[in-house]
Amino acid sequence: MKLLTAAAILSSAAAFAPTQSASRSTQLMSTIEAGVPERVAPDAGFMPDWEDRPGLAPEEFMQSDMGKPDLSGMWECPLTRWDSEGINVAEAQRMAKKVPHCPMEVRASSADNAKGAQYFADNASQIKQDLLKYGAIWFRGFDLMKSVNGYRDMYEALGIDPCLDPLHSSGLRKFASERDALYEEVNKPSLRGHYIGLHCESTAKRTAAYAAFVCFQKATEGGGRFLVADGAAILAEMDPKVLQKLYDRKIRISVSNLDIPPSIPGPLKEGIKNLVDVAVAPKFDMDLEMIYEADGKPGRLQAVESAESPINRHPVTGLPVWFNNAHNHARKLRDRRPCGVPEVGMTEVFYADTMEPLSLEDCQEIKRASEKHITALSMEPGDVLLVDNYRALHGRDVFQGDRFHAVSWFTWDNEEWRGDERRIVEKNGMNKMINGMMDWLPKDFESNQS
């Protein structure tokens, strides 16, 4: 078992090895076969102007108030709340069409800035109501959140409790300030040429209730807009026939690949699969099934999530929403836009009933409906996007230079929904290993395999 775990780690490390650097433009070489369309960054329906507001130097914005309690023993991410049975798709679309534009924008006045954290304490109840109504709130031009200290003051004034990232054990994010329950966003220079599609911070097993994304430093050489879209608006927009098909058939998502030589005898391949299933998969805190060659590639072993509905009712409001990460995970979309993920981390989306990858036509409809409702935010120092994680999806465009955004995840006020699990420190091993591996990559790493 230990030998296999080491082999899996070495395989991952090989996949992360740097290759020849590609152009910095958003049109990159394909990672697969010749004839695949040129990679182009998707459009957005709404694109606010940049304002070039100044921020603080890193040594200033990263200071933590050591007089405050250490929050590193935060709550575990709560279990996903599913209410997806018996949905009438036509009625769901009619309900979803009534929602206002997401996000709501709240711009700080001089009086608001003078209040500091008290502004959020005074308005906490209204902010929470608006969050349910709009799905996300963009706090723009607030000086308080230009630093880690002020950002923590903000969410504590709102009275929301931080929790672990749903994928904490996977190592996709490391802490920016662990004692302040603050994760670094995907700022790694090695992934600045990678477009992150729309997704909720969710798996079939765990989902954060809320998130607060903060900008401390915008990209120094351009790009890096933060993407947000309303899951209700996407649901209302989508072709009813495609939506009904996806709801009826459900979907499954593969989260990683391990390529085994196809010539290995069948019994040995099954042994490898069983060992990975026992030794590696549990480290990701997800309900995964190890399946060979689901995407048709000989010898490929994929870790696949359980079947889930692409439509879910919001746990509080009951509003039907598009609650699904296909825009980010579908291979047919990733292969047509800037992508810096190596093969071991390439994902795919399948129809759950047949385990066939989603068709190009269905992927294109998901793309169209999703991107029409993207607001590509020009977040600058001190800006925070507060997100209802069951309602709004988020992502990130490519950027140049250096960028520092961060995020905290929050659990439910409801004790039953929150659960009683505090942080399980045994999950840290995979997180530290993968983040250490990613930190070795050169700044302009891109996975251009052919």
What does the secondary structure layout of this molecule look like, with pairings?
Elements: H1 2-15, H2 58-61, H3 89-96, E1 104-107, H4 110-115, H5 118-122, H6 124-134, E2 136-140, H7 148-158, E3 162-163, E4 175-177, E5 182-184, E6 196-199, E7 210-217, E8 226-230, H8 231-237, H9 240-249, E9 251-259, H10 266-279, E10 288-292, E11 300-305, E12 311-313, E13 320-322, H11 326-329, H12 331-334, E14 348-351, H13 360-372, E15 375-377, E16 384-388, E17 392-396, E18 404-410, H14 415-418, H15 428-439
Parallel strand pairs: 1-2
Antiparallel strand pairs: 2-16, 3-18, 4-5, 5-18, 6-17, 7-16, 7-18, 8-15, 8-17, 9-11, 9-14, 10-11, 12-13
Helix pairs in contact: 1-10, 3-8, 8-13
Protein name: TauD/TfdA-like domain-containing protein
GO molecular function: oxidoreductase activity
Keywords: Oxidoreductase, Signal
Explain this structure.
- There is one protein chain.
- By secondary structure, the protein is an alpha+beta fold.
- It has a single domain, classed as Double-stranded beta-helix.
- Helix content is 28%, strand content 19%.
- It has 15 helices and 18 strands.
- Strands 1, 2, 3, 4, 5, 7, 16 and 18 form an eight-stranded mixed β-sheet that branches.
- A hairpin with a 7-residue loop joins strand 10 and strand 11 (300-305).
- Helix 3 packs across helix 8.
- The model is unreliable at 1-34 and 429-450 (pLDDT under 50).
Key terms:
signal, Double-stranded beta-helix, globular, 450 residues, TauD/TfdA-like domain-containing protein, TauD-like_sf, eight-stranded mixed beta sheet, oxidoreductase activity, alpha+beta, TauD/TfdA-like, disordered N terminus, disordered C terminus, four-stranded antiparallel beta sheet
